[in-house]
Amino acid sequence: ELRGGAWVVIDPAINPEKMEMYADLDSRGGILEPPGIVEVKFRPPQQVEAMHRIDEKLRQLDAQLPNAQGDEKQSIEKNIKAREKQLLPLYTSVATTFADLHDRTGRMKAKGVIREGICWKDSRRFFFWRVKRRLLQDFLIARLQKADEKLTHGAAEALIEKWAEESKVDVKSDRHMVAWLEAQDVEARAATLRDAFLKSHIKELYGQLSASERAGLLASLQAVK
């Protein structure tokens, strides 16, 4: 269970290129615990309001109240208070369970604060392949970024996954990706990317020259050739 300021210390947002966060399927995470959320977001007056909107018996009593007078009115009001008192623990319990659902693994994944929910008994095997993939993948990314100075970490990762998909590899499987990454010629991949980067860079610089400068450059290149 992870609460409050403790989350900030291990939040992947600190270094999204290197950090990933996972949670056990039975874990919980959030700023406040469910009872605290209920105290802030769904207090007793709000619960009573919901009762009068949902509970059929209270709706009937509310309908009778405007036309009642004297002892009859007092009796209806007494019955309303008794019904509210009877329902309050139930509504608090339901609200607490509802708040707890927002702290579970599925919701954390849906909000993007964790990458995946992991079953504890499978965690050792999962992280063995995950860490191995990340080491191989990050090494390749570093070489690609050295070859192409404009390549971001995210773009390099997307490029690697594209190459893997072209080789019919399941990019969601860490084990399959490890096998594919280990078979790659890293230097050849980097050299190909370096050539593409240099061509693009030269073309960009050439486009910035005036017509006369372009003509002079072409002439000098032909002379070298």
Structure description:
- The protein is mainly alpha-helical and 225 residues long.
- Helix content is 69%, strand content 4%.
- It contains 11 helices and 4 strands, in the order E-H-E-E-H-H-H-H-H-E-H-H-H-H-H.
- The strands form 2 sheets. It has a two-stranded parallel ribbon. Strands 2-4 form a two-stranded parallel ribbon.
- Helix 3 packs across helix 5.
- The longest helix is centred in the middle third of the chain and has 32 residues.
- The protein is elongated, with a radius of gyration of 32 Å.
- The relative contact order is 0.08.
Query: Which regions have little confidence, pLDDT < 50, spanning 5+ residues?
Result: none
**What structural class do the secondary elements suggest?**
mainly alpha
What is the 3D form?
elongated
N-to-C order of helices and strands: EHEEHHHHHEHHHHH
Describe the SSE topology:
Elements: E1 2-3, H1 6-10, E2 22-24, E3 29-30, H2 34-41, H3 44-54, H4 56-64, H5 70-101, H6 105-110, E4 116-118, H7 123-147, H8 153-166, H9 174-182, H10 186-207, H11 211-224
Parallel strand pairs: 1-3, 2-4
Helix pairs in contact: 2-5, 3-4, 3-5, 4-5, 7-8, 7-9, 7-10
Brief digest:
The protein is mainly alpha-helical and 225 residues long. The chain has helices at 6-10, 34-41, 44-54, 56-64, 70-101, 105-110, 123-147, 153-166, 174-182, 186-207, 211-224; strands spanning 2-3, 22-24, 29-30, 116-118.
Keywords:
elongated, two-stranded parallel ribbon, 11 helices, 225 residues, 4 strands, mainly alpha, two-stranded parallel sheet
